[in-house]
Design a protein that fits this description.
Order of helices and strands: HHEEEEEHEEHEEHEEHEHHEEEEHEEHH
Largest sheet: 16 strands, mixed
Distance between the termini: 10 Å
CATH topology of the largest domain: Aminopeptidase
CATH architecture of the largest domain: 3-Layer(aba) Sandwich
Number of strands: 18
Number of helices: 11
Helix content: 10-25%
Shape: globular
CATH class of the largest domain: Alpha Beta
Length: 479
């Protein structure tokens, strides 16, 4: 059963519309960022973005603007290929198009030559393991019973909506079975996506893998399986890449407020590709908050504000690990809430020609929120006031099942400080298909206003007061 957690009657939020950043400006920011190219940690485009964000913070009048260095891992593939043939007949090798698995091992120019082990085989030792990676389809009808604590669905879509997540059931842990089985290489086939792709930037946990690996699209996966069925037993997997330490940066700026305590507004600036949604959209949402609050007087800001665009998200979250370790006392004692804003995404569908087609609808919106009644109340109020349909108030733990933290950047803040982490998870999130047309432009203004409502709604709250009201959640209903 979902509890009603409404704000006290009579409390209102004043939003100065003339001081808001318009969606056209936000999209222009995203377009400029995307134009720089792939923003993986250590890449030139991400270094450019760090400096660009810093300059926007300075222009907005933020104080103590700085770049905090963060150790990260730079991974850059140079050459990758997969050839298969019948044993003893390598002159008739078939080349299967593919893409390198991030962080996987370098083979050198000669590659790894080994026997193929088809899906379902148990004997992997010394072989190239072929694995089918089925993306999860999540029926939204189960969410209120199993996970969500409240749903805003005025159009009544959620009972029939099925969301394709950007992960398989093993999440980012894609190669462990092959490693444990003693395989010499890994070939992953991407199944269950609404379009045909092999440009899948997973894993991104910042840990070098001991095996070389490549991803195949579903169509090319079928081609590989047909070759195996026709008698192909051998393969050559080639992957050459750079894997070396690099330095990224967290970009930080502050504004003084009416109290001595803090609200943090954050997202990340790096990305798997040139990525408009992940997280060009997050950058734009944070910058919109920085500009709005900088245009108000100090006494109109309910608490001090710290704006954070962290680096190293695509390197195991190294930027937030550094931020939390460097500011732990602040987080545990003086932060009222950490607001993280990620992925204002469009939902997509499969086109008739197999292409990926953006729709007019937003992707399902998750709001991971700490178990604090006053915080849940202001989040619900903001969602309803801005009519952010397809919104789920999600717990900070337990999704995916068994997890102790949210499945994204909020993981690093929970349970140190009260948390609100806005997030969507479209199927193209880690793919180069994350282009400008995937940003849900109609969401930009209401998400900006909703964030303002949350900040203003916490004007009377204190860090200690919110922590004192944290409750143990009821177990989900089985019905």
């Amino acid at each position: 059963m979902t509890r009603e957690l409404d704000r006290p009657a009579g409390e209102t939020t004043v939003i100065h519309e003339e001081r808001l950043v318009d969606p056209g400006t936000m999209m222009a920011w995203i377009e400029e960022i995307v134009a720089q190219g792939i923003r993986r940690p250590g890449y030139p485009a991400d270094r450019w973005t760090e400096r660009w964000v810093r300059d926007r913070f300075v222009e907005a009048g933020l104080e103590d603007v700085r770049l905090e260095p963060v150790d990260a891992l730079l991974w850059e593939p140079h050459r990758w290929s997969l050839e298969v043939w019948r044993d003893g007949d390598d002159r008739r090798a078939a080349e299967i198009p593919c893409y390198a698995v991030p962080l996987s091992a370098d083979t050198g120019p000669a590659g790894v030559v080994a026997e193929l082990s088809p899906p379902g085989a148990t004997d992997l030792r010394g072989k190239i393991a072929v694995v089918e990676n089925e993306f999860m389809a999540l029926p939204q009808a189960i969410m209120p019973q199993l996970f969500a604590r409240w749903v805003h669905d005025p159009a009544g879509e959620m009972d029939s909506l099925v969301q394709t997540l950007p992960f398989g059931s093993n999440m980012g842990d894609v190669m462990t079975a092959a490693i444990d089985g003693g395989a010499a290489g890994f070939v992953g086939i991407l199944r269950g996506l609404p379009w045909d792709t092999d440009r899948y930037y997973v894993p991104y946990d910042g840990k070098a893998l001991p095996l070389p690996g490549v991803w195949l699209s579903a169509r090319n996966g079928d081609r590989l399986l047909a070759e195996i069925e026709a008698g192909a037993t051998r393969a050559r997997l080639v992957l050459t890449r750079t894997l070396e330490p690099t330095v990224s940066h967290n970009v930080v700026g502050t504004l003084p407020g009416a109290s001595d305590e803090w609200i943090i507004v954050g997202s990340h600036h790096d990305a798997p590709w040139a990525s408009a949604v992940e997280d060009g959209g997050g950058i734009a949402l944070v910058l919109a908050q920085a500009q709005y609050w900088s245009r108000l007087r100090r006494e109109e800001r309910p608490h001090n504000l710290l704006f954070l665009l962290n680096g190293g998200h695509m390197s195991g979250g190294s930027g937030l690990i550094h931020f939390v370790e460097s500011h732990r006392e602040l987080l545990e004692r003086d932060v009222v809430v950490e607001l993280h804003l990620e992925h204002p995404a469009r939902a997509v569908r499969a086109g008739d020609d197999g292409a990926l087609v953006p729709t007019d609808a937003p992707e399902v919106r998750w709001w991971f929120t700490s178990f604090v009644p006053a915080l849940e109340a202001v989040v619900k109020d903001a969602i309803r006031s801005e009519n952010l349909e397809r919104s789920l108030l999600m717990p900070p733990e337990g999704f995916p099942p068994g997890s102790k933290h949210p499945p994204t950047d909020g993981a690093f803040f929970h349970p140190l400080t009260p948390l609100v982490n806005f997030l969507t998870a479209p199927p193209y999130l880690f793919d180069e298909a994350d282009t400008l047309d995937k940003v849900h432009v109609p969401s930009l203004a209401p998400l900006t206003r909703a964030t303002i409502r949350i900040i203003q709604g916490l004007a009377r709250e204190t860090a200690a007061g919110l922590r004192s009201t944290t409750y143990a959640p009821e177990p989900p209903s089985p019905s």
